[in-house]
Amino acid sequence: MAVTRLRNIKGPHATEIERKIKRGNTLRQASWWRGYRGLAALLLVVLCTCAGAGLLLHLSSLDSDITETLVRQRELVSPQPRAYGVPCSEDYDNYKRYPGCTPQKCGRVVTDGVVTREEALASKRSLIKETDRLFSAPQASILDLHSGALSMGKQFVNIYRYFGDQIRDVFAQEDFQLYRNVRGRIQAAIAEAFGLDPELMYLTKPTFFSRINSTAARTQHDEYWHPHIDKVTYGSFDYTSLLYLSDYGSDFTGGRFIFMDHNANRTVEPRTGRVSFFSSGSENLHRVEKVTWGTRYAITVSFTCDPEHAISDPALP
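== 2-oxoglutarate and iron dependent oxygenase domain containing 3 ==
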């Protein structure tokens, strides 16, 4: 398994972040050699919502350290989003800058006014209609919507190839049209919040559907809770978004999204239809709390400013 490489993280808390990442890499290497060797990197990263570097493993159980809840599940954040600005890290200096898109101001934003609850539930139904049956392993699982790669225990299966011509009995054109509409609205919301030109933002991979639950991890693949920085893992990432498809407190417990600032942990409680998005640099070190009951569903959609890393919307083959 590849160890996450530090990409000259800079800023006032760079030493602390580098220490956390180095410690996480050491722990994951030890776990790796005690287990089997396989394709672990993608699942480890994406279930944390796109990512890659670790922190001390015991931190994942210290959720009593959460000092602020940014948005609770019962709150309705609409029509105006709730925005929290943070100073940009210097991560973006390591990459070509794209005027009108590369972050000039950074932060995190939560809104319930971009995607309706009905649209979120429709997306969830279409994605779990057949994939829930294929999610045969009880552990955390992901479906890459662009490539069709579905995690099944210790391996990945391409559902487009698996179903062949019958894939159209699983997904309809309307499902992909709904995704395109939702993606477009999320892109517009990010552009408005950060003062960007939406035409200069591009969908980038991976974009994926995730299912995580309280089943104990059997391999390193299943350890979705590690802290990470999206831009450290995927250099192309500039903005990351999550669309929640289930409710914290009623569909599952645990599973909150936690921003790990240098002086506090701040959390977002998932709500069906809620969209959370943020700049992808080390100013937004984050993790997902372990799910203790039920199942948490979400879609992660990320954007890049680099047209060379652009991908098209998922579509039926």
